[in-house]
Amino acid sequence: RAALRLPIFGTFEIGASGSFGTEDGAPNGAGALWFVGVDAEADMGRVDIKAQWLKGRAPGDPVSMTYGLDLHQGGYVEADVIITPIIGLLGRAEMRDADVWQNMDRFYITKNYRAVGGFRLLFSPNAVMKAEYLHNGEYGGIPSIPDDVVTTSAVIAF
User: Fold this and answer.
1) For residue 77, with 0-12 CB atoms within 10 Å meaning exposed, 13-18 middle and 19 or more buried, which class applies?
2) Which pLDDT band holds residue 75 (cuts at 50, 70, 90)?
3) How would you list the strands of the sheet with 2-6, edge to edge?
């Protein structure tokens, strides 16, 4: 990853990244996967905005049964807002357009989006509670299923 950090909008960073190599679990010489992407982040004090876009491909391997992937594109935009030192909000939008396969046995078409809203309560650096609502949806003629999620967590570190 290479990035450039500029003192605008508070602090603004833009970067580009890539990876290339054999897929985890595949034998040496099985074919290389690759990913490329760009990302940006603006830290404006009480508001942080992050975004990333990614594209990639993995050939899969019939011997090791690793999955093939054609990630046409995927990305997200996220905003984190500090309301008070204790209360924070999160908003995030994601999308993914990919084909995934394993040999000729399985083939999955993924065209989905997600909208996330959440809040957190930071009682101390060692005690945090958060809750999120995730609205999941499909596009491009892919059948939808009711798969929205509400999740909560409490983290105590010592």
Assistant:
1) middle
2) very high
3) 2-6, 11-22, 32-43, 47-58, 68-82, 87-102, 106-124, 127-138, 149-156
State residue 65 phi and psi, 5-degree precision: 65, 25
The whole-model pTM stands at: 0.84
Which residue reads 């982040």 in tokens?
41
CA 90/CA 93 separation, integer angstroms:
10
Do strands 127-138 and 106-124 pair parallel, antiparallel, or not at all (unpaired)?
antiparallel
What are the C-alpha distances in Å from 68 to residues 19, 22, 27, 87?
16, 12, 14, 42
CA distance 76 to 16: 15
Residue 158 corresponds to which amino acid?
Answer: F
Indicate the DSSP class of residue 105.
Answer: T
Question: pLDDT for 12-35, tens place per residue?
Answer: 999 999 999 988 888 877 889 999
CA angle 106, 107, 110 (to 5 degrees): 140
Yes or no: say if 96 and 72 are a contact pair by the CB < 8 Å rule. Answer: no
What's the whole-number mean pLDDT along residues 38-42? 97
Token representation of residue 150: 């509400």
Per-residue tokens: 34: 């690759």
